[in-house]
UniProtKB/TrEMBL annotation:
Pathway given in the UniProt record: Glycan biosynthesis; trehalose biosynthesis
Organism placement in taxonomy: Eukaryota, Haptista, Haptophyta, Prymnesiophyceae, Prymnesiales
Record-linked InterPro entries: HAD-like_sf, HAD_sf, OTSB-like, Trehalose_PPase
Name under which the protein is recorded: Trehalose 6-phosphate phosphatase
GO molecular function, one term: trehalose-phosphatase activity
Function comment: Removes the phosphate from trehalose 6-phosphate to produce free trehalose.
Broad enzyme group: hydrolase
Entry-linked Gene3D superfamilies: HAD superfamily/HAD-like, Trehalose-6-phosphate phosphatase related protein, domain 2
Organism: Prymnesium polylepis
Family statement drawn from the similarity comment of this UniProt entry: Belongs to the trehalose phosphatase family.
Keyword annotations of the record: Hydrolase
Any matching Pfam family: Trehalose_PPase
Entry cofactors: a divalent metal cation
Amino acid sequence: MRAAVERLAASKEVAIVSGRSRQKVEDFVRLTSLFYAGSHGFDIAGPDGLRHRIGEEALPTLAAARDALQARVASIPGASVEDNQFSVSVHWRNVPEALRGEVEAATRAEVEARHGLKMTTGKCVFEVRPELPGAPVWHKGAAVRFLLDYLINARRAHGLAGHEVEDEVVPIYIGDDVTDEDAFAALHGLGGLSFLVAGAGESERPRETYGSHVLADSDEVQALLHALAAF
């Protein structure tokens, strides 16, 4: 998969948008030519020196919630807490079904006990993220819009396109998580394509989605990346 991404990035602008921290994703992928949006887009960096961070004022509160959650779920088999810097992920995939409600209740309690945080859900995970009063809602979809605006303005600044550059850009987003729906929705009306990667048994009957297309698995994702690179 990494080779397919690297090949695509040789001729196209490529961004990885993840719920994990930006640094974790960069360290894993190890491709310096990409844009990276970590923590659901709260921390964005690019190969040209771009840095955009949202919600830094919430970091101490997130750290306190992380520590409290680690203590609260330590006795629940299979539960784990992941620090993603601008978000905290509480994983319950390996938690016995009868105990999953305890994980949700613990997460909700710690969020409600603190100002400036909100709880969302993903694939077998509860997410704790900053909630910024008076600021636009920030998520993967907002990050995608930010990156599109940034790249379009950069092309204009370098004289690579005219004022109708939006018509020359076809954004494509691939994702498999519930949190990717924000990005799928963001592409509506932008002439983009969005691909839901369906889980096992979902390829013919995927969940309700804003995605415009469905891919069955990572093999189909890789084939699509190679096809786009050749286009």
